[in-house]
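Notes from the 1:1 (GR / supervisor)

We went over the backlog. Supervisor wanted to see one worked example end to end before approving the batch request, so GR pasted a single chain during the call. The sequence is below; no edits were made to it. Supervisor asked that the structure be written out right there so they could see what the output format looks like.
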Amino acid sequence: MSWYTLIVRLLLPFALIRLWWRSRHHPEYAPRWAERLGYGPAIEGAPIWVHAVSVGETRAAAPLVRALLEDYPEIPILVTTTTLTGAAQVTMLFGDSVIHRFAPFDLPGAVARFLGATRPRVAVILETEIWPHLFRALRDRDIPVVLANVRLSERSYRRYRRVARPIAQILGIPTVIAAQSPADSARLRALGAPLKRVHVTGNMKFELSPTAGLREAAQALRFAFGERPVWVAASTHQGEEEIVLSAHAVLRQGVPDLLLVLVPRHPERFEAVGKLARSRGMTVVERSSGVPVTVDTEVLLGDTMGELMLFFAAADCAFIGGSLVATGGHNPIEALALGVPAVFGPHMFNFTEIAHLTLAAGAGRQVADEDGLIAAVRAYLGDAGVRDAASAAGESLVRTHQGALRRTLSLLEPLLSPPSADP
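Structure output shown during the call:
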């Protein structure tokens, strides 16, 4: 037994306890937790398997999944996630057009059961999900592996360097590795990925095209808010809501009718964040309650799933959470694609390149603390010219960097086309 297998087996009891705990708080999860051990009904038709860990990866995979559904209507699409929020995102985005399963733990037995039931014709793994047992099992079954939209930060690269030999062996398995940038490609090759298998395709998270329906819904929401300025604090983490609410209180001194749409990253924190805002003396309305926002409402708590794009589209500017605390930030592209200036903190190490592009284009601002957040939001709310320039820059930036989907599909096509009959 390898050291890796031993560690995973030692961690398994704690993972199972966590699954049991989640099942108690999320009854819809209870019948399905066994999927993490590889159990589940058989899937007919050798599906295309797309693995996206959670919400962010699922959103990034959405254009690819839609393209596969259109280009290969005869082939089932299996989408796996590891989180409940990711599962909810799959349902919201694709409904019954795809099959959803929770991905198995990376243990030989769980992986074998999963692959035995699903029998995919190709595995498309989003971003940097490197699972030794899974990759080896796919290789042993002659199932092509495609690592798509791969991002490898300098921080992750240094961590992988500590186990360089086994990582090089694993990176030798995928048929195709589609890196987001030349820097990601260079790090992957330095870790041992074969040169001919690594391609720079760009970032599929730029493949956003807001629909007319979304913009219409946002206009209706903005009308319901009334003629008042609106800012969004998106995907906030513990320790950030206090900063955001304090900033909001200061901003309302100059803009008394300002509305904050506060969207915590994790659903289990919705209630606590609502209590926090009320403890500050603020009038709060939960989005899930259906209670209308009135002129007295100071905070709309975004406690629903799948509406972040709608909130962005209805806002004047947005703060991107996970960046004022050392979480690594979240993706500002959704806000930029909708023409919403993005403000983020100093901790954007999970989105370093996108943060640099945003700042270079003039589509957003990076701040160090609460004072900086107040100044940036005040600048965008107080000057329509500044706000419009950032809005146009963000939309242009997203359009300029599109094309990753087309490049990724071209790499997938040979693995999905039937073999030609040579004379």
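Supervisor's comment: The chain has a mean pLDDT of 93.
Batch request approved.
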